[in-house]
Structure to design on (396 residues):
């Protein structure tokens, strides 16, 4: 039975597909009938892989007394040990290892990892002499031991990468769950704030108090948008995209017009010029398309020039609904373009950096969920224009 502390080492060697072939080749090259890969520490000798044709009795996980092996010496000096006829060898004829195990031929090479740590040995033994004088034998077995060491290093790197990836995935999952729970739990106190603001507005006529109530209501509206964005982001990340409920609707134009009015009321400093022309029923989720438009208009207010109008065009063209939002201001830099539709990314081009940076990400996800696209063009001459397109009718 394998000691628990060496189970991973035995498993690592068994996971290298080349090891059985290597052991077979060692036996073939040396003419010896037993070959093994051993894990050798300062206290243990453990067989990790074995090719045995002499019934020596060792299996993977089996052990020899460390001090009875020559591998114990190799661990200290990191040099190969080779002899083909122990009983006539000046040194090994009296060595305790050949005498204890009845060995005549022996070859063992160190397996040293890339960071210099000694793993063990690649070795072969037999009870009969073997011709091991050819230098090519040691060179070839040295390459085999290096191959095993490199395979162990590669496995170690893969295990580390897998562990880091697992940790990153777990951290991401917990972060997104936290965001979802946080967004959900914030809705209740926010609703109370809105209701309190509405109630206060009916109880006073003082202009200063009404101004404070309006500020509270405005802040609660903005907070509501942020919470919904957080929830949508969490849903999209954990559920494979932002969910939409599409159906044929003939009031999308009215819904979008109402969306513009809501944004206009919440952004009185901005100027909106809209043209909404939808002549047919549209297959969509009206609330999600309203959210897409609200995010695009909010982005235009935040990052565009307040001194110039924001233009909105909603039309149907060649079987598609086209929503175009254009604003003036500092153009988006080429460096920021690839990041615009990524979460938590704010444009640094002329904007005030408000919000979580989820608006454009969510808008692009809504467009994707409608089998559509969201694109952007930006230049000093024509301004910044976001265009969302999606099919107006169900696709086959």
């Amino acid at each position: 039975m394998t000691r628990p502390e060496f189970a991973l080492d035995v498993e690592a060697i068994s996971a290298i597909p080349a090891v059985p072939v290597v052991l077979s080749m060692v036996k073939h090259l040396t003419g010896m009938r037993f070959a093994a890969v051993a894990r050798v520490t300062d206290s243990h000798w453990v067989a990790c892989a074995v090719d045995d044709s002499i019934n020596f009795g060792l299996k993977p996980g089996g052990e020899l007394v460390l001090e009875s092996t020559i591998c114990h010496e190799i661990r200290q000096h990191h040099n190969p040990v080779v002899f083909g006829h122990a009983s006539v060898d000046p040194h090994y004829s009296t060595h305790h290892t050949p005498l204890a195990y009845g060995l005549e031929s022996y070859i063992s090479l160190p397996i040293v990892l890339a960071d210099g740590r000694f793993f063990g040995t690649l070795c072969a033994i037999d009870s009969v002499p073997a011709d091991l004088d050819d230098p090519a034998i040691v060179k070839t077995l040295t390459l085999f031991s290096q191959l095993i060491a490199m395979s162990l290093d590669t496995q170690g790197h893969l295990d580390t990468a897998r562990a880091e990836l697992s940790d990153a995935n777990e951290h991401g999952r917990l972060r997104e769950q936290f965001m979802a729970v946080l967004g959900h739990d914030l809705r209740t106190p926010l609703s109370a704030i809105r209701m309190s603001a509405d109630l206060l507005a009916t109880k006073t006529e003082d202009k200063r108090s009404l101004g404070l109530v309006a500020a509270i209501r405005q802040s609660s509206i903005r907070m509501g948008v942020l919470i919904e964005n957080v929830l949508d982001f969490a849903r999209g990340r954990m559920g494979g995209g932002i969910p939409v409920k599409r159906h044929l609707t003939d009031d999308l134009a009215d819904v979008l017009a109402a969306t513009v009015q809501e944004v206009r009321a919440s952004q009185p400093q901005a100027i909106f010029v809209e043209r909404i022309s939808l002549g047919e029923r549209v297959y969509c989720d009206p609330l999600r398309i309203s959210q897409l438009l609200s995010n695009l208009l909010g982005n235009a207010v935040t990052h565009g020039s307040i001194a110039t109008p924001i233009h909105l065009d909603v039309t149907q063209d060649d079987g598609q609904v086209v929503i175009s939002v254009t604003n003036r201001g500092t153009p988006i830099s080429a460096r920021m373009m690839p990041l615009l539709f990524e979460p938590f990314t704010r444009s640094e081009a002329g904007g005030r950096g408000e919000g979580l940076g989820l608006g454009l990400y969510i808008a692009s996800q809504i467009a994707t969920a409608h089998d559509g696209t969201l694109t952007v063009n930006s230049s000093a001459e024509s301004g910044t224009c976001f265009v969302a397109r999606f099919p107006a009718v169900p696709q086959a």
Q: What stands out?
A: Residues 347-353 have pLDDT under 50 and may be disordered. The chain is about 45% helix and 20% strand.
